[in-house]
Structure prediction request, 380 residues.
Amino acid sequence: MRFMGLVMNSFYGILLAGVLASNTALYGGDEIRIGELTSITGPSASFGVCARNGTALAIEQINAKGGVLGKRLKLIVQDDRSVAGEAATVARKLLYSDKVVAILGEVSSSKSLEAAPICQEAKTPMISPAATNPKVTETGDYIFRVCFIDAFQGEVMGRFALSRQFKRIAVLTDERQDYSKGLAAAFVAYLSKHGGEVVKAQSYCTGDKDFRAQLTSIKSAKPDAVFLPGYYTEVALIARQGRQLGIKTPFLGGDGWVGEPLLKVAGNALDGCFYSSHFSEKSPEPSIVAFLAAYRAKFGSKPDDMAALGYDSAVLLADAIKRAGATAGAALRDAIASTKNFPGITGSITIDNRRNARKPAVIQAVEGGKSTFLETVLPY
Prediction:
């Protein structure tokens, strides 16, 4: 019987070793799996592809320097196709099938709000590059972002509007986007407290093509400016139709305007308009100059805000893994939460006690069909 026990123990030892070897081969004992949830296809693809490119560049550079904790980072990207509800499905796949230690994404606030509860339940950190709606990180203590929030962005644009003597403002909001509604609320709150006035409020829905009824109503109110906190797809069409209807006042917007498709479609319709963003390629900072060169060399184009934010989300996560000394959920969560004055491409990032990034904003002006840096606004 003792002999049989030794045989069985040896058998189970071999079996366990085989299982561990199988798991190592399957899940990569010499690699750390990081998931990315983003829109590679669909209406939000410009945002998602640029964020993915920035993340991929960061992972490539980190691995070229030896990886983290002696292991290579493996980026696993899943496309939510810009479809409502798909982000939750994709998040589950990354967590339970791909076995990632953290998720980067989504760029959109609405899709981030779909994925965040899944990550929170799994006790796996999620870092959004660009979801600015405050509700995202309110989901729980495993949810973070590397961008500023709408309360700050809305106040920045409210202050800017009043500094330009734009006191009578019309607001045109996308009712299907948490991002648009949240940014509009923050802007209106600041405006109302500091002597401004909303003279007309109108709305539309993602995917709409004809905005003439809303714009005609706005024109009749004779505003000093129109606050348009939407995404570039609709913003470009709204600007063109607004100019065709004779609206000459400036449009003001947020970081949803970011992306080359905006100005390709809008042409000169947005000349004389302004929006807030996260990043300026005009900066002389050596780290930004190096990022621009590396991005152009890899992708053959210039990076936008989403690319820079995607890059920052990846390098901040890698830094947190290094400081944690492990990839376990709680240890990694605590390391991300303790991030202070991290030198990101989009500015110095400090994660506050609500897991939001305290950092500067940039205001861009549009002239001649091109966006140009106007000023940097520091956090208050």
User: Anything to note?
Assistant: Residues 2-27 form the longest helix (26 residues). Confidence is low (pLDDT under 50) at residues 1-28.
